[in-house]
Design a protein that fits this description.
Length: 126
């Protein structure tokens, strides 16, 4: 007798989830650094208008966080060394650095959502 059931749901070979990727935790922590850097950049720009040199310190802190976050995120996403160097150099150009941070944040969000993370305003949660 035939065991074929025409009403059975189709079976597909599913790929292993991306959550087993070794760099996904590094991507999550680097994305938080990048998000904090973007927020600190805007806060520093506003504080620089009103407070002067104190706001400049906040902007410098945002740039430092952005540099560290960019390097860690590029490592977690598996970018090659020339791409990492180019992105780090672009971080020293004032408006371009903000655009680089926003693009990297979007790429990290896509990778984290594919791995099953929930990504909110201040980073990813499992």
């Amino acid at each position: 007798m035939n065991t074929y059931n025409p009403y059975e749901a189709p079976k597909a070979a599913m790929a292993a989830p991306v959550a087993n990727d070794a760099g996904i935790e590094q991507v999550a922590s680097a994305q938080k650094l990048i998000i904090y850097s973007i927020l600190a950049y805007f806060a520093g720009a506003a504080a620089r208008t009103f407070l002067g040199p104190i706001g400049l310190l906040l902007v410098l802190g945002a740039v430092l966080m952005g540099l560290i976050g960019t390097f860690r995120l590029c490592s977690g996403l598996g970018y090659s060394m020339p791409v990492r160097v180019i992105l780090i150099v672009l971080m020293f150009v004032p408006l371009v650095s903000l655009i680089v941070l926003l693009v990297l944040n979007a790429k990290a969000t896509a990778r984290l959502r594919a791995a099953g993370y929930h990504v909110g305003l201040l980073g990813a949660t499992r």
